[in-house]
Amino acid sequence: MLAIQNLKTCRRCFNIAEDDLCEICKDLHRDQKIVCVVEEPLDIISLERTGTFKGLYHVLGGVIFGGKDENLKISELIKRIKEEKPEEIILATNPTTEGDATALYLKKKLQEYDVKLTRLARGLSTGSDIEYADEITLSSALNNRRELK
Ligand SMILES: [Zn+2]
């Protein structure tokens, strides 16, 4: 388990980490071609609990608020798209008004790149939080994700 006093931020995905890279980024058996974009590190814990997702993550650090994307790790995400060339980006922001607005905003920013953009299926009830969703609901939301065109 992570020792709280030693917590850092992963320099690649901004998950909490003990070293420069988090355990997920260090794991070369994970699918390097799929990146799941989440709002907060706690969402990663929930998604990991499903055992369904084997790709990588990118923590935004929040949502668009009042049309502003300050402090969100969007330019870092674009850099990863350019350098790591993932095949798919899953926009797994929460199914809330802000989360949906953020997914739409990211779609506009990212559609010029050669990467498939998907969004979690609507198994999650609107207004709910990924962090609190149960494993079965989250698994099905992941498995039934749809492409954003
Ligand atoms: Zn990481």
Can you characterise this structure?
By secondary structure, the protein is α/β, with parallel strands linked by helices. The protein has a single domain (27-147), classed as Dna Topoisomerase Vi A Subunit, Chain: A, domain 2. It has helices at 23-26, 41-50, 74-84, 97-110, 135-143; strands at residues 8-9, 16-17, 34-38, 56-59, 88-91, 116-119, 146-147. Helix 2 (41-50) links the parallel strand 3 and strand 4. The longest helix is centred in the last third of the chain and has 14 residues, at 97-110. 31% of the residues are buried. Bound molecules: zinc ion. The site of zinc ion has 8 residues, from helix 1.
> Helix-strand pattern, N to C?
EEHEHEHEHEHE
Helix residue percentage: 25-40%
Residue-averaged pLDDT, rounded? Answer: 91
Count of runs of 4 or more consecutive helical residues = 5
Give the DSSP E fraction (strand runs of 2 or more residues). 15-25%
Form type: globular
Whole-number count of domains:
1
